[in-house]
Amino acid sequence: MFTYTLRRLLFAIPTLLIISFVIFALLDLAPNDPTGDLPLTIPPEVREQIRASLGLDQPFFFRYLYWLQQFFINEPLNILERLTGWQFGDGNRMRVLSWATRSPVVDLIVQRLPQTLWVVGLAYLFGVMIAVPIGVISAYKQYSIFDQIGTFLSMVGYSVPTFFTGVLLVVIFSSYLQWFPSVYDTNLVVNDFSSFVQQIKQMALPVTVLSLFNASQITRFVRASMLDNLHQDYVRTARAKGVKEKSVLLIHVLRNSLIPVVTVIALGVPTIFSGAIITEQIFRVNGLGQLLIIAVQGADIPLVQTLTFIFAVLIVLFNLIADVLYGILDPRIRYD
């Protein structure tokens, strides 16, 4: 297992380099101009000076290598300096800067990350916790009332878009009943019980919307995988040996059924860090999803490049984690 993991990590290096080049090339060569929104009264020579200050007067390949140095060397060294307090070099290394704010891109991401993790992360966790037991019970009691209701709700929850569900909950619970706020207050500081209750209230609606969507998607995979394993020969053998039905269901069937489900759950984890763009827009959650929208609208290419590449890194990483979990769940799978 260790050899396989190490080999996959080494293979991920050229994979990420290719992905980084594709992302950088697509965004850099796109027909956009950071000076396009400036007033027309600005002289052309001033526009060229602005482009030169952003490094756009350099050849494409040199800009790509410079971005690699900033992202893979300068930013990690800066993070190590913050975590350890040690000094690596003179500390004046150039970082990836946002065109719009001229602030380091990583600092902008770190500022928005807690809001995204609180809302989207909790929603994904709750979605998994809801989906697994519902999928197991629905498969075990196939065609029962519980199964029919659970299947119907999962299909509705997955089919109805989050912007409709979000607006519906805002109308009912914020405008009509006035139980929860409709806007997420990012500046709220939790320092006592009253502020903690307020934090729970403002998280209730966006977390509910995303939890229902995630649970609806995962439930379908859990149920289908459980049904596929419930009729296997090893299940009949375990029952013939007198193994308790609870043990057959939770130890034998569930463990094997989670193998394909792990892929869905693991590959869905990066979406936590990418943020829920639509839901964050509805509830005004100042997270990474909203940051990406602002960057795209403002043609802030360095910020879009960094966010997109971080999402790609997370996908590659959690794909590896899913493969490793296969070997833990199924002893028949051997990588070495």
Structure description:
This protein has 336 residues and is mainly alpha-helical. It has one domain (1-336): MetI-like fold (Orthogonal Bundle). The protein is built from 13 helices and no strands. The chain has helices at residues 2-28, 44-53, 60-84, 105-140, 145-159, 162-176, 193-230, 233-240, 245-268, 270-274, 277-283, 288-297, 301-329. The N and C termini lie close together (6 Å).
> What gyration radius follows from the Cα positions, in whole Å?
24 Å
Give the class from helix and strand content and strand pairing. Answer: mainly alpha
Number of helix segments?
13
> Which descriptor suits the 3D outline?
globular
Spans with pLDDT under 50 lasting ≥5 residues? none
Give the domain tally: 1
Jot down its keywords.
single chain; 336 residues; mainly alpha; MetI-like fold; 13 helices; globular
Short description:
This protein is an all-alpha fold and 336 residues long. Helices cover 74% and strands 0% of the residues. The radius of gyration is 24 Å and the shape is globular.
Which helices and strands appear, and what pairs or packs with what?
Layout: H1 2-28, H2 44-53, H3 60-84, H4 105-140, H5 145-159, H6 162-176, H7 193-230, H8 233-240, H9 245-268, H10 270-274, H11 277-283, H12 288-297, H13 301-329
Helix pairs in contact: 1-13, 4-5, 4-7, 4-9, 5-7, 6-7, 6-11, 7-9, 8-9, 9-13, 11-12, 12-13
